[in-house]
């Protein structure tokens, strides 16, 4: 079984954070530790990640991905 893990975080705009790229390992799972002063955005990053992951596991996302796969198959064939 292949390991599934995130290789980067890109934040377009969350609260005061704009166009932030957080590169992660592309070869294996590693820990990410967020440090910074109060008000620097640590909690904002985690809340945005939580919202995204909730969307990914939601039925709405799964339906959209199935449709996307079907459309991709249609266009390739």
From TrEMBL:
InterPro entries: AAA_GajA/Old/RecF-like, P-loop_NTPase. Keywords: ATP-binding, Nucleotide-binding. Pfam families: AAA_15. One of its GO terms (molecular function) is ATP binding. Residues 8-54 form the Endonuclease GajA/Old nuclease/RecF-like AAA domain. This is ATP-binding protein.
């Amino acid at each position: 079984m292949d390991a599934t893990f995130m290789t980067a975080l890109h934040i377009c705009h969350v609260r005061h954070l704009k166009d932030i790229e957080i590169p992660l390992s592309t070869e294996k799972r590693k820990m990410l530790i967020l440090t910074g002063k109060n008000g620097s955005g640590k909690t904002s990053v985690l809340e945005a990640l939580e919202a995204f992951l909730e969307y990914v596991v939601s039925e709405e996302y799964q339906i959209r991905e199935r449709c996307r796969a079907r459309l991709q198959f249609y266009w390739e064939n």
